[in-house]
Amino acid sequence: MYRQKHLLFVIVAWKINNRGAGVIGTLYQVYAYEKDGKGGLKVDKEIVTRNDMTGIEGTDQNLPSHFHGKTPSEVDELLGLKPK
Q1: Rounded to an integer, what is the distance from CA 9 to the centroid of its chain?
Q2: Where is this region: Disordered (predicted)?
Q3: Is the distance from CB of 18 to CB of 29 less than 8 angstroms?
Q4: Domain assignment of residue 50, given as a range
Q5: What is the pTM of this model?
C-alpha cells in the first residue's frame, strides 16, 4: 500500500529528562507527508497516528526503552517496505 504513494518522512527527535517520571533519553516522532494536489503537502494521518511511529530511546518509567524508527531504513521496516 505505501509503495504506491510518494511520501516525505520527517524524523524529529527531542532530548527529554523527567527523572521524577523515570523518563530520560530521546523522544522520537515520525511524520509522513504526501502531496495535497494544490502544490503543498498534507499529513498522512494513517501513518502518523500509528503507535509505532513514536517512542523513547533511553528509559521510560525507569525501564529500558528502545525506539525502532530512528533511521529511514528502520521506518521502512516499520511500514513493511523492507524485511526486518
Answers
A1: 9
A2: 58-84
A3: no
A4: 2-78
A5: 0.85
pLDDT digits (tens, 9 = 90+) for 17-66: 999 999 999 999 999 999 999 999 999 999 999 999 999 999 999 999 99
Confidence of residue 84 (pLDDT cuts 50, 70, 90): low
Q: Number of folded domains in the chain? A: 1
Residues 26/55, Cβ–Cβ less than 8 Å: no
Q: Flag whether 84 is in a domain.
A: no
Secondary structure (DSSP) of the chain: -GGGS-EEEEEEEEEEEEGGGTEEEEEEEEEEEEE-SSSSEEE-HHHHTSGGGEEEEEEETTEEE--S-SSHHHHHHHTTSS--
